């Protein structure tokens, strides 16, 4: 079940990345990974809930707070630079089953 949720999270992360580039109005907010992780933990109480490998050896991570419901998606480049991609509220962990093969959603 965790693998299904993880795969769904990666797909969602890819969608966020694609739409972010299409509608970007502000420059990305980037810093050293350690500094970003520290800020997410100290300011928002967020910890890592998911991770995946994106294009060009970039690492996508999903951080969230179980207490406040805030969430943040980051992408870390091979250089070590981490950029904030998206953030929001009302994060929930879902354990939904995938539809049977050949059946509609």
Structure description:
This protein is of the alpha+beta class and 105 residues long. It has one domain (2-88). Helix content is 32%, strand content 30%.
Properties at a glance:
globular, alpha+beta, 5 strands, 105 residues
Protein topology:
Layout: H1 2-23, E1 29-32, H2 33-44, E2 47-53, E3 59-64, E4 71-76, E5 81-88
Question: Roughly what fraction of the amino acids lie in strands?
Answer: 25-35%
Tally of individual helices: 2
The largest β sheet comes out as:
5 strands, antiparallel
- Mean pLDDT comes to 82
> Helical content, roughly?
25-40%
Task: Label the structural class.
Answer: alpha+beta
What is the radius of gyration computed over CA atoms, rounded to a whole number of angstroms? 15 Å
Number of domains: 1
CA-based shape: globular
**Spatial order of strands in the largest sheet:** 1-5-4-3-2
**What is the H-and-E element order?**
HEHEEEE
Through-space gap between termini: 18 Å
Number of strands: 5
Q: Stretches where pLDDT falls below 50 for ≥5 residues?
A: none
Short structural summary:
Helices cover 32% and strands 30% of the residues.
């Amino acid at each position: 079940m965790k693998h299904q949720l993880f795969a769904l999270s990666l797909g969602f992360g890819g969608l966020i990345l694609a739409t972010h580039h299409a509608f970007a109005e502000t420059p990305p907010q980037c810093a050293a990974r350690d500094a970003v992780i520290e800020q997410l933990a100290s300011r928002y109480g967020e910890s890592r809930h998911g991770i995946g490998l994106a294009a060009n050896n970039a690492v996508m991570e999903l951080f969230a707070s179980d207490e406040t419901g805030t969430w943040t998606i980051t992408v870390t480049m091979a250089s070590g630079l981490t950029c904030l991609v998206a953030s929001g509220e009302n994060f929930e962990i879902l354990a939904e089953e995938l539809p049977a093969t050949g059946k509609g959603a």
